[in-house]
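User:
I study polymers; will you set down one protein's sequence and backbone structure tokens?

Assistant:
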Amino acid sequence: MGKQRYDTAENILGNCFTLLILISIVLTTLLLVFNRQLLMLFGASENTIEYASAYMRIYALGTIFVQMTLGMNMFITAQGFAKTGMLTVLIGAICNIILDPVFIYGFGMGVTGAALATIISQAVSSIWCLIFLSGKKTNLRLKKDCLPLKSKIIVPCILLGLATFIMQASESVIQVCFNSSLLKYGGDVAVGAMTICTSILQFAMLPMQGIGQGAQPISFFAVTYTSLYIRFAPPPTRTL
């Protein structure tokens, strides 16, 4: 976008959209086929597996909405529409807060209702993203011509995200080890306590991550500008 190559940027947007759909199909299949095995690996026990499995069966069907919301919202923020990107998150969160008690208590659906509320909320957020990226206010638009995958576009995108994927995958492996140890030595209560602590920790971590991500472009511009100025600025003139 800095080079005014909007056609290439839209090709990247379209290719990433297609790749997100393919990844969603693979993840949905894995979550449905290996439902119980994955849950037991991540810390579920015989006492909790039925609740977790019921939640996962519904949540897996909404994988595509989660992927669309997370992936496409990045393209909104990258264009400078930070408020719109924030609204994407807020819309999903508010819908989830409203629908959770409706489905869980109002309709008496329990865990299944919680999962259904989550995927509906993510669906609303993903629809919001797609409407914005297909509208007139955005600089980059989703176009049919840009959807077919091209190796010269998608390979650099995958390589660019590989470092983040490895970092988050490592955190997931550590979480699996934690849960397995907690389940072995402390039981379901210890796993539940760790889950609560992790959720509370997000109140501290998420603002820090948000500030860090928001400051990155500003910091990058400042460092780049300073480096270029030092390198190419004319030497100061001396007066006698």
